[in-house]
Amino acid sequence: MRQARWGAAAVVAAGSAVLAYGLWPAGHDGGSPGSRTPAGTRAAPASPTPVSGPPRTIPAVTEYTAASGPGWRPAKDARVVVGDDGLADEGRLVARELGMTYAGEKAARDREAGDLRLEVAGDRGANPESYRLTVDGGRVVISGPAEAGVFYGTRTLKQMVTASGGAPEGVVRDEPAEPKRGLMLDIARKFYSAAWIEDRVREIADLKYNELGLHFSDDQGFRVESSSHSEVVTDPHLTKAEVNRIVALARSLHVRIVPEIDSPGHLGAVLAAHPDLQLYKANGRPAAGAIDISKPAAGKLVDELIREYAEVFPGTEWHLGADEYVALLASDPEATYPGLAAAAREKYGPGGTVEDLTTGWLNDRAATVKKLDRTPRAWNDGFFDGGAVAPSQDIQVAYWTGKEIGAREPSEFLERGRKLINYNDEYLYYVLGEPLTFVYPTGQRIYEQWTPFVVRGTTAVPERYDSQILGGSLAVWGDRPNAQTQEQVAAGLRMPLRATSQKLWDRREPSLSWAEFQQLAERLG
Fold first, then answer.
1. CA separation, residue 345 to residues 112, 327, 329, 341, 359 (Å)
2. Start and end of every Beta-hexosaminidase bacterial type N-terminal domain (predicted)?
3. In the chain, is it the N or the C terminus that has fewer CB atoms within a 10 Å radius of its CB?
């Protein structure tokens, strides 16, 4: 058998027939979560024309071994079968997308021409997001050590069909370089409809992202229904029924929701309903958005909210925020906020500082989250070292800026053994209205300049920290919420999402030029 091997960088935009491809239309109410059919996608008609050339996908597959043979094309009467019922959602989804017939669970020996088979198989100790896609003898088998990997294999096949009408003969072996691949939405300052958020879940799932962050509390709004503290909720907001649908859809598409209730700053909407917890300066003026962390009731309130929403957002991750607490922006925090200074000395001794008290707050909230079996993360400007208390070692660093107080380099966190997620505001921040020095990110800059090692500015950290850099995330912030409609935001994110997907899935230099990558993105829709 004559064989050739392509790596991820060898994907080319060959001039073959293309099927229309896009997001699922909003409002579809049939089938299981995530089962909507992309507008215009149809099964390719039976054809003797072979499918040839390496797979054309975003992100590119990491390894493809070609083989001689005609390849595979989906047909209306061909079956999608699964090795066990745990893959039923994945099977139904890809059957609808490719216009095939879902035939349910079948034994491996039950084979028919044109079958697409999904199965959990292989080394259970392997990367659970890895998969193998084999095209041989007029059939396709997608296997992986866990359901997530099998799902990603169906995303690859879907794009192959879109780009070339089918899948070429051979074997794809694929897995992501980074375990965390995300998009974060600030729905507190700019409200987005549930349908719009669901469309983003589908979009990022097709690009093999696995996280959607929801920053739903800030000075301007608290945007999810609450049963424990309904007084803090702002209109408009998502109902819990809407959130349940988003969560169910995300789970079916192997996207985990990472909720964020930012504290002790950015709590203006909560404090509007709890003015007794507002932090005040020595001159009697309120500190915008800042809760008085010297008051036990402040921690009690935030912990109650965390516990409530841990039930609304089941999962393994939690974002604590912790950025831009205005008490620490003062030139002399102890003089400006004497109440905080007194509480710090009482708790940590004569040398206790407002910074220590703030770190204690972060650790207390992290303890609450960990009791709920969540892994905490916090923005990098909420970490302080050298005081009477240090941030808990197991709080992951969400590194977004080098402009914070003290301007600590990413290497300082990494040298201390901390794990880090890359939110670099130089490349990955989509800030509505482009305030201050922010500019909208472009797919080209991300594709040509950024890697997960470029954590701050344009400078990469040493690759020896590879195991501590867990991945990255684009972040959409609503500083000027009326600067763009939600439709404009979706359009503006389109190419940055695709470029970031490529760079998080495979650290190697892509061989496609930016122009070729754009052409492929247009082909895939």
1. 75, 16, 19, 6, 14
2. 55-174
3. N
